[in-house]
Amino acid sequence: MLLLLTVILVALIFEYINGFHDTANSIATVVATKVLTPRQAVVLAAFTNLMGALWGTAVAKTISSGLLDTKLVTMTSDIMICALLGAIVWNLLTWWFGLPSSSSHALIGSLCGAALAASSNNWHVIIWSLPNSQHWYQGKGLLWKVVVPMVTSPIAGLVLGFIVMALLYLLLRNARPVWVNRFFGRAQMVSAGAMGFMHGTNDAQKTMGIIALTLVAATQAGQLENLPGWLSFLHTPAPGAGKEMEIALWIKVVCALTMAAGTAVGGWRIVKTLGHKMVKLQPINGFAAETSSAAVILVATHLGIPVSTTHNISAAIMGVGAARRLNAIKWSVVERMVWAWILTIPVTGLLAYWFVRIFRALS
User: Which of 8, 27, 259, 273 has its CA 20 to 30 A from that of 218?
Assistant: First the structure.
């Protein structure tokens, strides 16, 4: 029981870190354009993250039942702790260097690495591809839910950012700059709020899925049979055949509040990279980037796809910058970010894999 509660605690620590690590995704542009002060932007992001985290559970269901074959491995509490530690280490490392990497992919990579170690290197434990017979985009597994979106969602963010910015330039080519800045300064508060809301809908749900997955494993193992009445809410039976995991309300609320608390801390190192180093932004640019990114994440969340908020907003900012001119983007900064994106899943997978091996060797 103590180990189970430790898993929940470590999961919430990850959620807290996710809050301040990915806060930059929703507030970097609005801070860089000086529409809001850092403090005002953090308050906006914390509130919208909280609201978004309570809206829907499609992504949480993917994490809890769409990536790993739980018939081949039991994700016990010790395994889950190792998986979470892998993601936490990578998040803190990239935060320290100001690299906007993906907390989503860090968690997914760690889960796969830990499951692989726990199953004695049985690669079948990872659901690679399980296409849906009706719609290809509703397939399950690492390919459909992670790899394909990892490529397509940033491309969609970049292209949409470019198109939105190009259309705004075309429509407002004769407008006075003072009026444009004033109007989009106000409009950007709406788009920044939408970005924060969508970040909450997608990112907070990953930890919900982790906690639900852990409780199902503990219930199946008989660890929650003799709980006192006040802890009966922890008992989580596996979903029936053909049914999806249902996420308990208390899990949603706790994860939402934890992410909001982490968001309130801020992530100024990453704000500096996204909002200042990559491309110089005006309110109209920030509005275009935030609106484009929020639209892509909305579609992904609806389909239950755990995409990277980081990748989307970064790509949207690139698209907005490219609409002005290609040399407006500092490509050396982009190169560092892309390397962080590429390395996230394999590095976190290896970290979690060796955490499990070391834990088992010592126990």
Answer: 259
- Token pair 């060796």 is found at 354
At 306, the pLDDT band (50, 70, 90 cuts) reads confident
pLDDT in tens, 241-267: 666 667 888 888 898 888 888 877 765
Ramachandran bin of 343, using left for φ above 0, alpha for ψ from -120 to 50, beta for the remaining angles:
alpha
Which tokens is 65 given?
């039942």
| Dihedral over Cα of 44, 91, 204, 316: its sign | positive
Backbone dihedral region for residue 60 (phi beyond 0: left; psi -120 to 50: alpha; all else: beta): alpha
Nearest-angstrom CA–CA distance, 48 and 42: 10
